[in-house]
């Protein structure tokens, strides 16, 4: 379904994110017929160039980062015609009059702040001062949204001076992933799961976001944040919210975000012995974390694992084990809901221990799998075996269904449609920092180093012990 005509300004339009994600995502929506020929995209950044040069920049970016073969080359020319560029300084006067002149009356206006958070306030202020943005304009802001509660509050305040909360779209691209949205459909579109979705039937939940790569060239940025700030406070906590929240009364922004906020507020403080922080060592040719950042004595963590507890009726007693890290065995992200053992085994001790596990796989191979126990085929008596109950979307819905749109495609179109459901509200972000801050503060107080782990491993052994001491184990990272 085509969206209404829009003017989208990408502040930071020459940056890495615009190149790798935003421009390719827009092109795909153009190819799909969702972005009409009446839409305009304006790149705006400090770099001096004209619109023709920007179109070349976008052509190269899309050629490099868009792997959708169905988008024909002639579509690309059409798409590029709708692009223009303005050289602009977020902190000065350059370019702002030109921007005002470029905006049309009528179409939806969206401003994508694809710049560091240090510029959010400046952009908001100038959009207002030059009378470019109005009460219906939308702004999109990227992570990191602050580095602690105080800085997040300051950012929220800076934006709130000129924009109402209903105009602010805080991106967490994990929420744009097809499977993450499917998690809500599975939970709230079926009667099958929700009656079991509580401490009585769920033994525990595991959330893993494992990366195989190290910090690479982003060491300068990463060393100032670490896994807790860069991943846990936003992406993993958002996943936790969607798994744990109560059914909202409606699938609308206020209802969904109210329920997510309640989860964050119900999180209990984490005990020091329930958090493990690690840092990868060099292995063979691969440099260790400390060799990839400036400060050779850095204590920044490239891995964190913790046990979270939610203090409410639904989840009291069910732990949520959450881990994320770099340079791990594989690039693999999943949520596993591990159900309790059947209350009584009629098949005797020989039948072994079997459990239902619902796995929501985010990468690679996005999909959902339900592990069920069945009889092993054959005449060998009643032997049990665990098999996945197949929910292959491709088979059920046709081959195109496996071709998921990228998270950014979905989210940018949601901005144009004015749907904030999959974006973080200001109070959610602040509540998440309020939970994370004491964990980071405690690390700083003890002045201890993170535990080293080998590149290509599953993280520090202490992270394994975090579950072992509860008689549980992590699923394999593969
Ligand atoms: P980048 O450094 O590659 O690009 C920054 C852009 O901002 C450039 O276009 C630059 O010209 C522009 N800019 C800088 N100062 C300016 C000023 N004073 N006035 C006008 N323009 C100015 O950064 P990036 O990697 O594209 O990241 C942009 C934002 O997105 C950051 O907040 C980052 O944390 C976030 N983000 C990036 C990624 C990613 O993969 N690159 C992922 C998630 C979030």
TrEMBL record:
<feature type="binding site">
    <location>
        <position position="143"/>
    </location>
    <ligand>
        <name>NADP(+)</name>
    </ligand>
</feature>
<feature type="binding site">
    <location>
        <position position="326"/>
    </location>
    <ligand>
        <name>substrate</name>
    </ligand>
</feature>
<comment type="pathway">
    <text>Carbohydrate degradation; pentose phosphate pathway; D-ribulose 5-phosphate from D-glucose 6-phosphate (oxidative stage): step 1/3.</text>
</comment>
<keyword id="KW-0521">NADP</keyword>
<dbReference type="Pfam" id="PF02781">
    <property type="entry name" value="G6PD_C"/>
</dbReference>
<keyword id="KW-0313">Glucose metabolism</keyword>
<dbReference type="Pfam" id="PF00479">
    <property type="entry name" value="G6PD_N"/>
</dbReference>
<feature type="binding site">
    <location>
        <position position="46"/>
    </location>
    <ligand>
        <name>NADP(+)</name>
    </ligand>
</feature>
<protein>
    <recommendedName>
        <fullName>Glucose-6-phosphate 1-dehydrogenase</fullName>
        <ecNumber>1.1.1.49</ecNumber>
    </recommendedName>
</protein>
<feature type="domain" description="Glucose-6-phosphate dehydrogenase NAD-binding">
    <location>
        <begin position="9"/>
        <end position="182"/>
    </location>
</feature>
<comment type="similarity">
    <text>Belongs to the glucose-6-phosphate dehydrogenase family.</text>
</comment>
<dbReference type="InterPro" id="IPR001282">
    <property type="entry name" value="G6P_DH"/>
</dbReference>
<dbReference type="InterPro" id="IPR022674">
    <property type="entry name" value="G6P_DH_NAD-bd"/>
</dbReference>
<feature type="binding site">
    <location>
        <position position="177"/>
    </location>
    <ligand>
        <name>substrate</name>
    </ligand>
</feature>
<keyword id="KW-0119">Carbohydrate metabolism</keyword>
<keyword id="KW-0560">Oxidoreductase</keyword>
<feature type="active site" description="Proton acceptor">
    <location>
        <position position="235"/>
    </location>
</feature>
<feature type="binding site">
    <location>
        <position position="211"/>
    </location>
    <ligand>
        <name>substrate</name>
    </ligand>
</feature>
<feature type="binding site">
    <location>
        <position position="173"/>
    </location>
    <ligand>
        <name>substrate</name>
    </ligand>
</feature>
<dbReference type="InterPro" id="IPR022675">
    <property type="entry name" value="G6P_DH_C"/>
</dbReference>
<feature type="domain" description="Glucose-6-phosphate dehydrogenase C-terminal">
    <location>
        <begin position="184"/>
        <end position="475"/>
    </location>
</feature>
<feature type="binding site">
    <location>
        <begin position="12"/>
        <end position="19"/>
    </location>
    <ligand>
        <name>NADP(+)</name>
    </ligand>
</feature>
<dbReference type="InterPro" id="IPR036291">
    <property type="entry name" value="NAD(P)-bd_dom_sf"/>
</dbReference>
<dbReference type="InterPro" id="IPR019796">
    <property type="entry name" value="G6P_DH_AS"/>
</dbReference>
<feature type="binding site">
    <location>
        <position position="230"/>
    </location>
    <ligand>
        <name>substrate</name>
    </ligand>
</feature>
<comment type="function">
    <text>Catalyzes the oxidation of glucose 6-phosphate to 6-phosphogluconolactone.</text>
</comment>
């Amino acid at each position: 379904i085509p969206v209404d005509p829009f003017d989208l300004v990408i502040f930071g339009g020459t940056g890495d994110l615009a190149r790798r994600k935003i421009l390719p995502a827009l092109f795909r929506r153009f190819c799909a017929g969702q972005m009409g020929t009446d839409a305009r995209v304006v790149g705006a950044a400090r770099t001096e160039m004209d619109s023709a040069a920007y179109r070349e920049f976008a052509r190269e970016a899309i050629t490099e980062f868009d792997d959708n073969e169905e988008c024909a080359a002639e579509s690309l020319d059409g798409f590029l015609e709708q692009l223009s560029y303005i050289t602009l300084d977020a902190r000065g006067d350059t370019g702002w009059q030109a921007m005002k002149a470029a905006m049309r009356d009528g179409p939806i206006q969206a401003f994508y702040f694809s710049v560091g958070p240090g510029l959010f306030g400046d952009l908001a202020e100038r959009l207002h001062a030059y009378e470019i943005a109005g009460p219906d304009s939308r702004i999109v802001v990227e992570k990191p949204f602050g580095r602690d509660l105080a800085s997040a509050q300051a950012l929220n305040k800076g934006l709130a001076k000129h924009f109402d909360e209903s105009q602010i779209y805080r991106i967490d691209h994990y929420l744009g992933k097809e499977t993450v949205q499917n998690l809500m459909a599975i939970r709230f579109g079926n009667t099958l799961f929700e009656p079991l979705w509580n401490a009585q039937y769920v033994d525990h939940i595991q959330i893993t976001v494992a990366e195989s790569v190290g910090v690479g060239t982003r060491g300068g940025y990463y060393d100032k944040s670490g896994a807790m700030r860069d991943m846990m406070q936003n992406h993993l906590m958002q996943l936790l919210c969607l798994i744990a929240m109560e059914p909202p009364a409606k699938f609308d922004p206020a209802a969904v975000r109210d329920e997510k906020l309640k989860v964050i507020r119900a999180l209990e403080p984490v005990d020091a012995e329930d958090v493990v922080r690690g840092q990868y060592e060099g292995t063979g040719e691969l440099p260790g974390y400390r060799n990839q950042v400036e400060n050779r004595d850095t204590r920044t963590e490239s891995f964190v694992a913790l046990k979270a507890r939610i203090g409410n009726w639904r989840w009291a007693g069910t732990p949520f084990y959450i881990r994320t890290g770099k340079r791990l065995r594989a690039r693999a992200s999943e949520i596993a809901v591990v159900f309790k053992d059947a209350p009584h085994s009629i098949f005797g001790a020989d039948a072994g221990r079997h459990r239902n596990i619902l796995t929501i796989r985010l990468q690679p191979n996005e999909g959902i799998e339900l592990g069920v126990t069945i009889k092993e085929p054959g005449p060998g008596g009643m032997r049990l075996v665990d098999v996945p109950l197949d929910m292959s979307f491709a088979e059920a819905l046709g081959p195109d269904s496996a071709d998921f749109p990228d998270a950014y495609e979905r989210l940018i179109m949601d901005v144009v449609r004015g749907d904030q459901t999959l974006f973080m509200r200001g109070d959610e972000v602040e509540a998440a920092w309020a939970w994370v801050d004491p964990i980071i503060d405690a690390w700083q107080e003890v002045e201890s180093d993170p535990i080293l782990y080998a590149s290509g491993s599953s993280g520090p052994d202490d992270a394994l012990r975090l579950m072992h001491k509860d008689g549980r184990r992590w699923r394999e990272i593969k």
